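haha ok so turns out i had the wrong file open the whole time. this is the CORRECT one, sorry everyone. sequence first:
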Amino acid sequence: MSEWLVLAIAMALVCAVVLAITAIRHRRVAADEDTSETPDVIEYMTMMVGVVYAIVLGLAIAGVWEARGGAEDSVRREAQSLYEVSQRADVYPAPVRDRIRGEVDAYVSHTVNVDWPRLVSGQSASDEGAQLLGKLRGDVTHQSPANELQAQAYQPLLDHIAAADDARHSRTQSDESTLPSVVWVGLVVGGLVTIGLIFTLQIRRSGRELLLAGLFSALIVFLLFMVWSFDAPYGRDGTDSAGPFQDLFPAVTVTASR
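then structure:
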């Protein structure tokens, strides 16, 4: 089921529950009850709870956004470093050059088609990726420069492989959920309390009040959905987050996906 469909259903259900409770409550109001005023203390408590929850929710959104940005930066650095290795290998003879580029392509194909589905599903990256990168590092390390041009390219090649290895470690270490379970409990319970407090303001069945109550409830659901979506650094479905690899190695990723 699509994430957007889940969001639409959740928002519709929450709005329906809020409006239904409002309608039922209005029918059960005593004839002599004054619904035109709300005690000041209730308004104050509602405002304070809303402010505190908004701060916590804002911090949660900022945290998952920063984690997502860090994960995307690691992917870009890894893909760019490997691309530089593939391009700089042009200074070597054809057999060596083709071997190095073949090992880069094998690593990219494995990363996109094997590691990425594991990362999206919450599993750790496979050990084969590290082995492929280690093989690439070993071949480049043991390839003695035969001329001045190869000597100038030798150290940069090793530096780019080291940068790719470092970015890979960052990627594999940031594949878990950013927010701990206790924070999620606080966000969900806080959202329910915040929505529940609107019933203390003696909402009536006017179209304007019902519309505002529904929109407020839908907004809380949308913000929680946004936190949940960004809490997965590499997305919840598909390999869209592997875009840098697909952009720099289109032939490898397209061929491997067929």
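The mean pLDDT is 84.
again sry for the mixup
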